[in-house]
């Protein structure tokens, strides 16, 4: 015969009320602690109702303490608290990545499903939530929830991960679009006119009054270095003159840092890249010329001076450069929003990767971009091209015999 079901850890059995010799009411219950042992918990008051209420307060507090002793996550933990608990323990995340994750938790996950408890979470609830999230945020939200519920499993708060039970989304082939040489010529010409103040933000002619403030005097030079290196914008913005070796037989640039922005710290030069790598890249002659011209325009270009610097000698903010680029490409399109508005700095990086792949192979493209494998480069950066089949014309010509036989008959 089966015995009575065991009381779950962090919970209690029936509450009984007794009258003490002094006439007070004492409520009692047996509580199962984190070590698995049952212990009596009691509370006294002048009435039965008051004694029960006082005992329930003690039992609830003991449940919270038990959850803390067993790892801080219980079936009653809300999704909002679970995700925050998970993020607070991700010590190896970079500050900017942690900011991005926190924004997704507070701005997307918490308002929609943050009050649902771990025990109440089902694959269906997660699926319905993810359907409401924009594609740009959906993958990150799903990743956060999957990792957070994996942590909940390790704390015995839930038996299965509701996120991993969801079907994986269909992989839609990425249509990678890159710039053609003609695109670049037209784009550069339009940006030059905008930088010189000859056109407004819509590409319409404007009075050449010399007003070019806020248009980024070094914007085209920045783009030239992006195209010459395939670097990320933050990596180019972080370059110092000590990173450029003009005297090498083939001049080089050492890429070992990036500009990042985090809450509380603002913009700063992070002494490692996104991939935590150090890349030594050879510079093409035109890039050497661009850098030499930039250096000649600086009053005192010391080794630690930024290559792209503000009027006060600090590193240029990549966000400011992006804003200037959005205005410049709009002007280059001469009012046509579709012409160049798709050209962001990642397109520059894809253009570099695609050209290197065509002429030298995907391994060299991956090395230039700083990827550990060609899979990442090919999936996200190299534009697809028609596969070249071998020359099989001699074999296929045999079908011509069938035509001859038909004609002969």
Automatic annotation (TrEMBL):
PANTHER family: PROPHAGE INTEGRASE, PROPHAGE INTEGRASE INTS-RELATED. This is Integrase family protein. The lineage of its organism: Bacteria, Bacillati, Actinomycetota, Actinomycetes, Mycobacteriales. Residues 174-394 form the Tyr recombinase domain. It comes from Corynebacterium humireducens NBRC 106098 = DSM 45392. Belongs to the 'phage' integrase family. One of its GO terms (biological process) is DNA integration. GO terms for molecular function: DNA binding. Keywords: DNA integration, DNA recombination, DNA-binding. It holds the Pfam family Phage_integrase. Residues 77-153 form the Core-binding (CB) domain. The keyword tRNA-binding does not apply.
């Amino acid at each position: 015969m089966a015995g009575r079901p065991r009381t779950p850890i962090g919970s209690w059995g029936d509450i009984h009320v007794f009258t003490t010799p002094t006439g007070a009411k004492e409520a009692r219950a047996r509580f199962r602690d984190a070590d698995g042992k049952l212990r009596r918990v009691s509370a006294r008051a002048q009435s039965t109702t008051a004694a029960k209420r006082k005992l329930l307060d003690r039992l609830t507090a003991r449940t919270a303490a038990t959850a803390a002793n067993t790892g801080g996550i219980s079936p009653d933990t809300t999704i909002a608290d679970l995700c925050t608990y998970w993020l607070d323990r991700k010590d190896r995340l970079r500050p900017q990545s942690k900011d991005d994750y926190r924004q997704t938790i507070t701005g997307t996950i918490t308002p929609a499903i943050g009050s649902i408890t771990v025990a109440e979470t089902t694959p269906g609830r997660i699926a319905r939530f993810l359907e409401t999230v924009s594609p740009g945020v959906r993958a990150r939200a799903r990743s956060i929830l999957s990792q957070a519920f994996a942590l909940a499993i390790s704390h015995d708060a839930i038996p299965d991960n509701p996120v991993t039970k969801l079907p994986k989304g269909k992989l839609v082939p990425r249509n990678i679009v890159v710039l053609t040489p003609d695109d670049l010529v037209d784009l550069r010409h339009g940006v030059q006119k905008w930088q010189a103040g000859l056109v407004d933000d819509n590409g319409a002619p404007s009075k050449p009054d010399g007003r070019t403030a806020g248009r980024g005097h070094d914007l085209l030079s920045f783009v030239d270095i992006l195209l010459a290196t395939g670097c990320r914008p933050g990596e180019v913005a972080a370059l110092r003159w000590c990173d450029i070796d003009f005297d090498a037989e083939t001049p080089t640039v050492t890429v070992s840092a990036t500009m990042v922005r985090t809450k509380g710290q603002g913009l700063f030069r992070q002494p490692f890249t996104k991939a935590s790598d150090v890349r030594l890249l050879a510079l093409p002659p035109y890039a050497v010329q661009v850098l030499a011209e930039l250096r000649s325009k600086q009053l005192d270009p010391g080794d630690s001076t930024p290559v792209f610097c503000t009027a006060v000698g600090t590193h240029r903010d990549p966000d400011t450069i992006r804003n200037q680029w959005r205005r410049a490409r709009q002007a280059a399109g001469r009012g046509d929003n579709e012409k160049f508005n798709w050209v962001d700095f990642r397109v520059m990086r894809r253009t570099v990767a695609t050209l290197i792949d065509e002429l030298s192979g995907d391994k060299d493209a991956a090395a230039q971009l700083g990827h550990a494998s060609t899979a990442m480069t090919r999936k996200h950066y190299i534009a697809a091209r028609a596969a070249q089949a071998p020359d099989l014309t001699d074999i296929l010509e045999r079908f011509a015999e069938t035509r001859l036989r038909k004609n002969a008959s």
